[in-house]
Design a protein that fits this description.
single chain, about 260 residues, alpha+beta, Alpha-Beta Plaits, membrane
């Protein structure tokens, strides 16, 4: 029955919205942590690896969002039978579950990062974040599901589903926006290219190197108005932080 698939579809959409919220606010705007900020080992402490894993995190969130939209499309014929408040309740549960999984799973059990890693009391920040962004949607979602059957089926379900789908579709390009008026991008080159290769690649792209790490494979490049990110990709760049969804976290990273 299509209506029986809706809880999963809306829950996945809410889960994806939680991921976009986390990625946009914590990774890009506030820059409080990388995905693997607390993972030990010299190789994983390399800023290039940290940024690459941030990019993979964003890819995973996009994949979850696409899955949610696909599940909603498959269950669309059941929307007319379901009150809109129930749909919103499932989505809120999904959003809250993201925060719960992130804090309890990634922060406390796996221990790969915290909400803030540069503070003396990271546990307090974790608890505060969960209290503000996790518990309210979980409680609101549970409350809506308890009273959701009181609402009439019909257009309300269609409107809520459309609103949530548009929210996910709208969050995706927002997550891919580069910093406002930025002409400088961080570029991660493939291993082995070295500083000399990076210099040649940037020159061919009509850019200018303004900073480089010790390896020469992570560089900040001023592309100006004439520079081409695609030219960098053709000459060995793996990620260019100019707003592409996979690489956008590069452009927001502080050096």
């Amino acid at each position: 029955m299509p209506a029986q698939r809706l809880p999963l579809a809306l829950g996945v959409l809410g889960f994806a919205l939680g991921g976009f919220f986390d990625g946009i606010l914590l990774h890009q705007v506030l820059q409080w942590h990388h995905f693997l900020s607390l993972v030990g080992g010299e190789a994983l402490r390399d800023i290039r690896v940290q940024i690459l894993w941030d990019g993979l995190f964003h890819v995973a969130v996009y994949a979850i969002a696409l899955l949610g939209l696909f599940l909603l499309w498959r269950a669309r014929s059941g929307l007319g039978e379901t009150p809109g408040m129930r749909l919103l309740g499932w989505a809120l549960l999904g959003f809250g579950i993201w925060q719960l999984v992130d804090v309890v799973g990634f922060h406390w059990i796996v221990g790969i990062h915290r909400i803030r890693v540069d503070v003396p009391n990271p546990l307090a920040w974790d608890i505060g974040w969960l209290a503000v962004t996790g518990l309210p949607p979980l409680l609101a979602g549970a409350w809506l599901l308890r009273r959701g059957d009181a609402g009439p089926p019909g257009r309300g379900g269609l409107r809520v589903a459309a609103m949530l789908a548009l929210a996910v579709i709208g969050a995706a390009p927002v997550a891919a926006l580069p910093p406002t008026d930025a002409t400088t991008a961080l570029v991660l080159f493939r291993p082995g290219i070295g500083l000399a290769g990076a210099v040649d690649a940037v020159a061919a792209a009509d850019g200018r190197i303004v900073w480089a790490d010790a390896s020469g494979e992570l560089v900040a490049v001023d592309l100006g108005e004439a520079g081409s990110a695609w030219a960098l990709y053709r000459r060995g760049a793996m990620l260019v932080g100019t707003g592409l969804p996979v690489a956008n976290c590069l452009g927001w990273s502080r050096i």
